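for the recovery benchmark. tokens below, seq after
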């Protein structure tokens, strides 16, 4: 039972429900494009693509993207870096039956931000944000640590809880789920101190 619980997150419709510290809460409720805020918060912003391929989706992702059970989906994972420091781990899943007519630029993103297409395409509809506390053993946190290497090992020792948000986007009949896991370094960005709480 415990192993199964570690693989699932209790996604909540309100950010207050995850009891994040105020600075992290401000990041969780960032309105509009998170990428735009990260760009404004740093001198040099970069999307580091980790991989983009077919892979089994997580159990708590299947229903969100219209699948009857956990199965293979198109998966993209990235690290969002500000001034050379990873601050967000991004995880995107798309059903295998989606094609270029649903998400025409998805396969060719490379190291461009997904947000640059989602927020400027008039056909894209954004769903409601959901929020969660993730343990250090959650699969997405473990993947983030693996991508960070030695830095991830140090982060793992010092942090037991991570905060994440996710959102389903729809374009025509296509669904796409984006999950953003906020790494502790995001709190060091200067803009976090000046951003006002909107909730």
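predicted aa per position
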């Amino acid at each position: 039972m415990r192993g199964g619980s570690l693989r699932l997150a209790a996604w909540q419709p309100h950010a207050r429900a995850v009891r994040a510290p105020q600075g992290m809460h401000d990041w969780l409720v960032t309105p509009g494009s998170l990428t735009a805020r990260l760009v404004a918060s740093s001198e040099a912003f970069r999307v580091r693509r980790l991989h983009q391929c077919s892979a089994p989706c997580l159990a708590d992702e299947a229903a969100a993207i219209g699948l009857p059970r956990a199965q293979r989906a198109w998966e993209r994972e990235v690290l969002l870096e500000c001034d050379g420091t990873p601050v967000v781990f991004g995880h995107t899943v798309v059903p295998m039956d989606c094609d270029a007519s649903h998400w025409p630029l998805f396969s060719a993103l490379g190291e461009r931000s997904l947000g640059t297409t989602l927020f400027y395409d008039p056909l894209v509809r954004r769903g409601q944000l959901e929020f969660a506390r993730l343990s250090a053993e959650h699969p997405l946190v473990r993947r983030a640590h693996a991508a960070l290497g030695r830095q991830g090992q140090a982060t793992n020792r010092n942090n037991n809880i991570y905060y994440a948000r996710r959102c389903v986007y729809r374009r025509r009949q296509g669904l796409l789920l984006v999950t953003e896991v906020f790494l502790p370094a995001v709190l060091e960005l200067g803009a976090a101190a000046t951003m006002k709480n909107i909730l």
